[in-house]
Write a structure and sequence with these properties.
alpha+beta
Length: 165
């Protein structure tokens, strides 16, 4: 039971720690690769990615704020996500579970389960945990999910966000 006693303050401080750092999350890890199924020119793909990163970072930062702090400060980001994705990223708050999206990187479409769609693919890393100690899972869970961006009516939209299993 010594471990439980030691972990208790650490777990208690997770929300404060995440609340302090979410303004800089998620970080982008750029890679020299083509993550598109619609463009072959790597220079065009990289240029489009810069526009995507602005959208993705704003949306995921807002999802982090809502999940960890219960605050919604930028409702404009909802216009960049499909209804399906909105339900995933902005679910009704729960008392005990939170998710923190911390890293985004381009994904090779062939390494995703949704490779047959036409658009741009990204991996998003997130951390899911509970505010209260969970003896079965004291450290939380790190996941890698696929985010899919496509142009809908001349506007970039995050149209899929799913597990890569």
């Amino acid at each position: 039971m010594v471990i439980s006693f030691i972990q208790q303050p650490l777990i208690k401080n997770k929300k404060k720690f995440i609340a302090d750092i979410i303004s800089v999350l998620p970080v982008v890890e750029e890679k020299n690769m083509n993550n598109s199924t619609v463009d072959n020119s790597i220079s065009k793909v990289k240029a489009e990615r810069q526009a995507h990163y602005k959208i993705i970072k704003a949306v995921l930062n807002e999802a982090n704020r809502k999940s960890t702090l219960g605050l919604a400060s930028n409702k404009d980001v909802y216009s960049f996500v499909s209804e399906k994705v909105q339900k995933i990223l902005f679910p009704k708050p729960t008392q005990d579970i939170y998710t923190c999206y911390y890293k985004v990187e381009p994904a090779d479409p062939k390494q995703t389960v949704i490779w047959n769609k036409k658009g741009y693919f990204y991996f998003v890393y997130c951390f899911t945990d509970s505010y209260t100690p969970n003896p079965a899972d004291p450290y939380g869970e790190i996941k890698k999910v696929v985010l899919f961006v496509e142009k809908v009516k001349s506007k970039w939209i995050i149209n899929d966000f799913s597990s890569n299993n």
